[in-house]
Amino acid sequence: MTTHLQSAGARRPVLALGSATAIALALAAGGAAAEPATITILHVNDIDRMSADDDRGGVAKVAAVVEAARAEHENVLFTNGGDNISPSLLSGFDQGAHMIALLNAAGVDVGTLGNHEFDFGPEVAIERMAEAEWPVVSSNVVGPDGAIIEGAEPTLTMEMAGYTLGFIGLTTEGTMVKSSPGDYRMLEVTDIAATLAAELREEGADLVIAIAHTDLSEDEALRRQGAVDLILSGDDHILSAFWNGEVAYVESASQGDYVTEVTLSLDRDEDGDVVWSPAFRTIDTVNVEPDPDVAAMVADYENQLSAELDVDIGVTETELDSRRSSVRTQETAIGNLIADAMREATGADVAITNGGGIRADRIYEPGTTLTRRDIQSELPFGNKTISIEVTGADIVAALENGFSAIEDVSGRFPHVSGMTVTYDPEAEPGSRVVDVMVGGEQISPDAVYTLATNDFMARGGDGYEMFAGAPRVIDELAGRLMAGQVMDYVAQRETIAPEVEGRITAQ
After folding, report:
1. In this predicted model, what pLDDT tens digit does every residue of 161-195 receive, in sequence order?
2. CATH node for 14-301
3. Which of 145, 189, 213, 234 is the most exposed place for a label (fewest CB within 10 A)?
4. Contact at 8 Å (CB) between 288 and 65?
5. How far apart are CA 378 and CA 297, in angstroms?
6. Cβ distance 344 to 421 under 8 Å?
7. From residue 443, how far is each of 89, 255, 342 by CA, in Å?
8. 153: which DSSP letter?
9. For the chain, what is the mean pLDDT?
10. Closest to 252 measured CA to CA, from 49, 38, 42, 39
11. Could you tell me the fold of the domain covering 310-506?
12. At what angle do helices 122-131 and 97-106 cross, to 10 degrees?
């Protein structure tokens, strides 16, 4: 059980866990040196899928890992690296409230905000934080007035086993492109880390820990900087651990498939300074028995979904490949299907949608009967299709943006309808588009075209700033859900056969 202790007028909250409360009070009263101790941290990140997949992951298995650790060890801390409320099947209906309830039941102790916490806008992020039974630490997400986002703590200190742990929370700057934070912005992570880590140490923190939903380049910058001692990261969906004698770093893949256990060994030298080292263990959840209480909650949520989603809508005669490595790097049949459905539903000249919005990461074999659940799994963000007026030059600029980060398997990769595109992946970003044909004719830079896209991209998401100020033909209020349009497109035809047909060609 986590107990919140904050004295009147205190600048930042202090937490005490378990028996650490008595130790902390004894230290304050008598000044005795802390004994050698170990603290066990269990870290997960990017868990938005409530159920196991191929016997791995899901919240019930993670909860069981945490419960077992707390039964075995005295000082256990369960940390959450963000990206919980989206994207998932049910989040399209409840905007992620079910994931907060499940993580509450699993016993999270402290966490931070990921970029997907802003997929439904900052108001929903604030609402979800209010529902969380753990403190959310967010040090670099600020509103127009420069204040930290409502409901979050800018820093946190925690007394545990006689040592003071200081926490900061960092959210990737890429959130401003990848998600929908509205007027909120994410300050540069190393600047914030340097300032707040120094303040925490001045105020008595023995160890400074960053729960950092940050990309690989930001992680590397934090490691090189050395302002914090331990980075508990997320965002990249990788399984990794690192220790160079000064800074430790872990990331736990995604979806609770693996839980990273970090055992911190702490002591003090003759000067009273903390000496510490980490040990890492990866816990594969494939053989973990789910926590029965959390599993029962998951089953209730799954039953709610089934009535709406487990409905057949049509058959695909061709293979559909929605794997991340495919939809973010090349033309795919499923990308063509989605773009065609958007263009048909709006009557637009052309359509562009981003590969990062296609999420199920699977292959549908020819002859597969598609269900509403399949389509919702592919398009879980609740995005709407809108129609805008753009020039040919705008379309070319959009395509340049879409191809600009193909080396990084970026979600901005474009899937198109009503046009064909040739590009050179070896050219410099911004100069990769070689040729564009619209309706069988060369694109005209000055001509005006109607373009169907999703509302996220239309706001400038994923770097599509050229769409943000475009006149709306069908605006966000009138737009329909992309997923619903694709469901209708398939259901009306009953049988579909989309193919890779040379809409996007690498020169």
Report:
1. 999 999 999 999 999 988 999 999 999 999 999 99
2. 3.60.21.10
3. 145
4. yes
5. 24
6. no
7. 38, 43, 20
8. B
9. 92
10. 42
11. 5'-nucleotidase;  domain 2 (3.90.780)
12. 30
